[in-house]
Amino acid sequence: MTDKKTLRAGLIGLGMMGRHHARNLQSLEGVELVAVADAHGDPHGAAPGLEVLPDVDALIATGIDYAVVAVPTQFHRDVAITLAEAGVHTLVEKPLAFDIGEAEEITAAYEQAGLVGAVGYIERYNPALQEMRKRIADGQLGEIYQIVTRRQGGFPARIADVGVVKDLATHDLDLTAWVAQSPYASVAATSTRRSGRRDEDMVSIAGRLQDETITNHLVNWLTPFKERITVVTGEKGALVADTLNADLTFHSNADAATNLWESMASFRGVSEGDSIRYALQRQEPLATEHQAFRDAIGGDSSNIVTMREGLHTVRTVEAVLESAREGRVVTLD
Question: Does residue 27 lie in a domain region?
């Protein structure tokens, strides 16, 4: 690739997540990481050879084509809006914002400016979920009936200023709407605090998508083993993704009507058919995320998490917290 086509990338935020973004940007074909910024310096030595700039304005002044924002969520709005006003395509770490108003403001700024804006929901880029999405789009399951996720384990070592809903369940809400290609219509949640922390550490969410798919999510920090499972059940069988191991298995429904006339193909039931475990290419999800964003700037936005999707996830997260707090089903507009 010639220098003329090389995209100039900037990164703001060199903390726990920012250092991984720096590593991926430095090895991304067609991209050069030309500038980094962090008011606290570069504690992990993630960007050797680059001056650590003080703020987003200094980053923009270097003449970047796009930016990755990995600052704490409370600063997302100000940094993202400043980048939008400067005409810079931007990938913002998840969540887009904690506040719905700020998320709407960011989304509108990028859409009105005609810029590529995306949110860094890394779980979407797990090889098992990428393959699952492709197979569902190709019709392997037929009509989708139900999506179930389980994201369970011990309390993470990193300091969390939020509960499991905003920290972990947000991944499941994003990937479920994406896998089904349908946003949430309603949620009913129950949460609890069992470990003495201020925020919830365990939640159960029942939901319904706009296309009538029913969903269920179990998320907690109180399980003495790690589990990351997504099960999508449809008329022709079920796909089970284990994102810890990047495994995908298909369980076919032997009774699924595949060769009957339309009029006779009414659904009767299920019986256990063959199971197939797929061998997948196990690329680092963050590398796939960066490739997808680079490609979006080049015109192919088919594999990014758009800011509008990120906004819907923020709204769904708030609906889950409201449902758990008030003990009722919450409908999303």
Answer: yes
